[in-house]
């Protein structure tokens, strides 16, 4: 009963605190249920511009037909493996729309950058802000007001959250998200991590490391580890924006194509022109966001979503807080062990029972709201099913497996890996931070140690190569927050910290930057707020200070005499280098106006300056 009370209690508090903003939002999207196709409300010249380039069939429908028109918003590019499969999607969608009596047009291209390519490079300083650019791009694409629903082709880190924020700005339109699917399994993630550590210690050559990386990232589709991209897919399914069982079907397969066609048909079926009108702004209510939080916690998903979920909810007039994550984490069990939380990848997870098994277990344990709206219809129970191709090649759904195919990576709620969700909020005299413990051994959940401060990844790497970190140590990497340099992911920190830890030393990290879903097995207090560039307490730390981090009691404090701590002046840093180069000068406004991480680190945040 405590579980049920906790989930309902958190939901109730979210509803109560969000009520004024949610009511304003719902009023703003009311009246979107038009009597006819939206394009017919435009002037003649406006309409003619909209169908001028179409073929005769689509032109005829768009000119005088009564069928719906789908907006295709695509993040296709052929540089990024997860987005390359989208090259084929518009033609598949157009054909399926015609068969269903409608039309589909590419409404706009959405920028998609890859943290895997930019990690450790200057371009990473644009990464978090790209989410808000994607939201803006989505709004621009939909601003022609010629569409009755939209299908979203996006999958990776900032793309899906940005698209959701943009979709909610047109909340009267139905929204269906169509994933491209993961690549097949290659060189194991665990072995690749070891190769990175060995390279950091100079034990293998760059060519050997590149060969291992190329065997890991080897074909079209998403990366197979459970980082932000695949957390996005889990979340879109458990929140009812994907078709059931569609998140982890491999890219460029007949089943994947069948799901894309089915998603297109479903998008046309839920427009205001039919009897199942399902506007995305109403679908994504408080209960749906709580379901997303539960999915995040049960699977050990990306810490980036402690910001993305807050920002997405805000776009729907819903106020999520880090306290909601922490409170739910106390009762949501950990049911999944996929790298970096285990050795398996998302293909193994899918084969073991995947989303259908996970959702059935969470529903059975009373952890999900079952009576929500989804693009597949009312109620979440449909999402315990899996899609298959029948003997005639048609798409069919069957009830998913009742028993996990591999208990080492997917477990029932009655036999979890842990009784808690593996995500917490640390509080203390250094501020607030996120900690992810799902991949960290229990004996490493608490550390008290001496601080060494750095102002960049490169500075810390230099100390590692000089042998200065091979001791019990808490590394503090500051001036990495959104106002300082855009809050880049600090992946370069992990191999050296893991190497030091593997030599038997106690290691932890404190930063106002990000580590994302690949945060791994080092105790890390991340997203620290207030950040150093705001004069936050992290800027007062000095080399040799003693800090205690306790992920069990959710505390983080510097053990300095209070009077001395009060007297200290915060360190300052020349941040002008982040003002220019690789496009960073164009994002100066973002750094000046961005909200804090606990408010979503968004330029749209009500807490933004």
UniProtKB/TrEMBL annotation:
Protein family (similarity comment): Belongs to the IlvD/Edd family.
Entry GO CC: cytosol
Binding site for [4Fe-4S] cluster: 156, 223
Biological processes, Gene Ontology terms: D-gluconate metabolic process; Entner-Doudoroff pathway through 6-phosphogluconate
EC number: 4.2.1.12
Span of domain Dihydroxy-acid/6-phosphogluconate dehydratase C-terminal: 409-601
Needed co-factor(s): [4Fe-4S] cluster
Reactions listed under catalytic activity: 6-phospho-D-gluconate = 2-dehydro-3-deoxy-6-phospho-D-gluconate + H2O
Lineage of origin: Bacteria, Pseudomonadati, Acidobacteriota, Terriglobia, Terriglobales
Cofactor binding remark: Binds 1 [4Fe-4S] cluster.
Protein name from the UniProt record: Phosphogluconate dehydratase
Associated pathway: Carbohydrate metabolism; Entner-Doudoroff pathway
Coiled-coil intervals: none
Role played: Catalyzes the dehydration of 6-phospho-D-gluconate to 2-dehydro-3-deoxy-6-phospho-D-gluconate.
Residue ranges of every copy of the Dihydroxy-acid/6-phosphogluconate dehydratase N-terminal domain listed in the record: 70-380
First-level EC class: lyase
Protein keywords: 4Fe-4S, Carbohydrate metabolism, Gluconate utilization, Iron, Iron-sulfur, Lyase, Metal-binding
GO terms, molecular function: 4 iron, 4 sulfur cluster binding; metal ion binding; phosphogluconate dehydratase activity
